[in-house]
């Protein structure tokens, strides 16, 4: 797998530092509260786990699973709900946790879906933000890193369900997905 990586953007140490920084920001903003973290599967699993380990506060968690890439390297624009949240979020402080904010379509879809359920508040925490990839307006409240408009894998991010288990975020060589 490592041979398929053009370059590493963020190492394990970079990611750990970002998780600590984001957790400190969240802990300050939610002091005295018990926020519900909703992770967007599958890519968020490593980030959400490491982020929550850095929080010294009472939290709850749930997951939602949507798909928009369907095996390609760019969002198809068609969002499919695979698994919905099981927790009642009415009146709750919710933090939606994403691995990457790219086109913005998935985030806009999820925000609309969750706001219909009347949470007390809804904020977004993304490890990676790719502003150049936006096709709809979308913004994260907490961002680990701004990234270039390249195809990234590792630390939960995949290409055709592979590379998620790399311990870093890297740029996938174009010849890998051009095949």
TrEMBL record:
Record's GO cellular component terms: cytosol
UniProt keyword Nucleotide-binding present: yes
Keyword field: Cytoplasm, Glycosyltransferase, Magnesium, Metal-binding, Nucleotide-binding, Purine salvage, Transferase
The keyword Cytoplasm is annotated on this UniProt entry: yes
Principal EC category: transferase
Ranges where the Phosphoribosyltransferase domain occurs: 12-159
Pathway assigned to this chain's UniProt record: Purine metabolism; IMP biosynthesis via salvage pathway; IMP from hypoxanthine: step 1/1; Purine metabolism; GMP biosynthesis via salvage pathway; GMP from guanine: step 1/1
The reaction(s) this protein catalyses: GMP + diphosphate = guanine + 5-phospho-alpha-D-ribose 1-diphosphate; IMP + diphosphate = hypoxanthine + 5-phospho-alpha-D-ribose 1-diphosphate
Family annotation (InterPro entries): HGPRT, Hxn_phspho_trans, PRTase-like, PRTase_dom
Subcellular compartments: Cytoplasm
GO biological process: GMP salvage; guanine salvage; hypoxanthine metabolic process; IMP salvage; purine ribonucleoside salvage
Entry superkingdom: Bacteria
Gene Ontology MF term list: guanine phosphoribosyltransferase activity; hypoxanthine phosphoribosyltransferase activity; magnesium ion binding; nucleotide binding
NCBIfam families xrefs: HGPRTase
Function field: Purine salvage pathway enzyme that catalyzes the transfer of the ribosyl-5-phosphate group from 5-phospho-alpha-D-ribose 1-diphosphate (PRPP) to the N9 position of the 6-oxopurines hypoxanthine and guanine to form the corresponding ribonucleotides IMP (inosine 5'-monophosphate) and GMP (guanosine 5'-monophosphate), with the release of PPi.
Listed name of the protein: Hypoxanthine phosphoribosyltransferase
Organism: Secundilactobacillus odoratitofui DSM 19909 = JCM 15043
